[in-house]
Amino acid sequence: MTDGKRRRGLATASALLGGVLVLSACSGGGDDAGNDSGKGGGASQAQVDEAAAKKTSEAQIKITPKDGTTNASINNSAAVTVAKGTLTEVKMTTADGTAVSGQISADKKSWKPDAQLERATTYKVTVAAEDSEGRAAHENASFTTVSPSNSFIGNFTPDDGTTVGVGMPVSINFDKAITNKAAVQKGITVSTTSGQEVACHWFNPNRMDCRPDDYWQEGSTVTLKLALDGVEGAEGVYGVQQKTVTFKIGRNQVSYVDAKTKQMKVTQDGKTIRTIPISAGSPENKTWEGQMVISEKFKETRMNGATVGFTDDDGKGEYDIKDVPHAMRLSTSGTFIHGNYWAAKSIFGSANTSHGCVGLSDTKGAGDPNTPGAWFYNNSMIGDVVVVQNTGDKTIAPDNGFSGWNMDWEQWKAGSAL
């Protein structure tokens, strides 16, 4: 073979070989693979995905709050639900492994803990469910509840289930200063079966009282609803309470202390049922004037002048009586109406001699039920009104005890945040 023929032959062979290589590359790709799969030679990705989907449970588990949540509610957290399936197991523990008791609903569609959660605690939730085909599904979450430093509560009075006098307001003292008063007030509802309009008044960022225009109607029932869970009372500080409280209003008893006549008229439904001689504050230590409300009752208690600013030159209390009988608090600052056994009986009804309290004749030991002090104590309840008149002193401040009745209705409503 000549060189020319040889070169032509190699070129022809190369061309043929190149064609084979190109053809092999194309036929070895998607076309031939597609043809092979169509002939049952292998599974496509779509078919693989479809087969896997048929093995996956349709049950859809939802855990509230979401995994990683902080400042979670202590009331409504850890709610577990399932769609397209039923729950088979729910486990909730604290971070240290302590189990939290809870119940799966009768229809096996939901679960919740049996009791309120603790603040500043991390919880872990593990859930298993299955769909109608018995295929299992699982879900896990971890969250942390709101801490005391990032939450607030309202300490309220009166207590649930109590019976109180007609002057007892709903008084709420918050453990954190509230800056978003409107939001917090919206979460608090006070209503009464008497139909009286009730308005709330903020005395300061920590205290809000609620009352009607006039005293509560006797025999009515008052309901306080706290829906503060999750309400932001101040920046980064959230409410945690979700509670309903009811209390009853007793008979309408209002007592009138007249420092000028030195007599007290006890009235029920506007009718005088007894007149009692009293001794009010001396000219040097006059008793506040105005409407006051009995907030505490003590059969016997200690009264030390040093605690309310009455001290001698040595810094000791001007008086220290460790067994004052039948004492009932009228103000936060220390005004009481109480029995007095140490003074001469002749002063009651004739002289004002106290350091600002209203005194009634009594005996040492609080054991004689026939004394005026004992009678008034036994016939009074928390929330009864005592109106003090003609002392010559100024009217008690509305936030000193439960003395908000000394504000007229328009002034009272002006203190609302809504």
Q: How much helicity do the residues have?
A: 10-25%
In CATH, what is the homologous superfamily of the largest domain?
A: L,D-transpeptidase catalytic domain-like
Beta-strand segment tally: 27
Biggest sheet, open or closed, and with what strands and sense?
5 strands, mixed
Task: Write the CATH architecture name of the largest domain.
Answer: Beta Barrel
Low-confidence stretches: 1-41
Shape: elongated
Q: CATH topology of the largest domain, anyone?
A: L,D-transpeptidase catalytic domain-like
| Cα radius of gyration in angstroms | 39 Å
Strand content: 35-45%
Mean pLDDT: 88
Individual helix count: 6
> Separation of termini?
111 Å
CATH class of the largest domain: Mainly Beta
How many structural domains can be distinguished in the coordinates? 3
Q: Tell me the strand order in the biggest sheet.
A: 21-20-19-27-22
Structural class: alpha+beta
List strands and helices in order, with pairings.
Blueprint: H1 3-27, H2 30-38, H3 45-55, E1 60-64, E2 79-83, E3 86-94, E4 102-104, E5 110-113, E6 122-130, E7 136-144, E8 151-152, E9 154-157, E10 163-164, E11 170-174, H4 181-186, E12 188-192, E13 198-204, E14 207-212, E15 221-227, E16 232-234, E17 237-239, E18 242-249, E19 253-258, E20 263-268, E21 271-277, E22 290-293, E23 296-304, E24 320-329, E25 336-340, E26 358-361, H5 372-378, E27 385-389, H6 409-414
Parallel strand pairs: 8-17, 10-18, 19-27, 25-26
Antiparallel strand pairs: 1-2, 2-5, 3-6, 4-5, 6-7, 9-11, 11-14, 12-15, 13-14, 15-18, 16-17, 19-20, 20-21, 22-27, 23-24, 24-25
Pathway: Glycan biosynthesis; Cell wall biogenesis; peptidoglycan biosynthesis
GO molecular function, one term: peptidoglycan L,D-transpeptidase activity
Signal peptide: 1-25
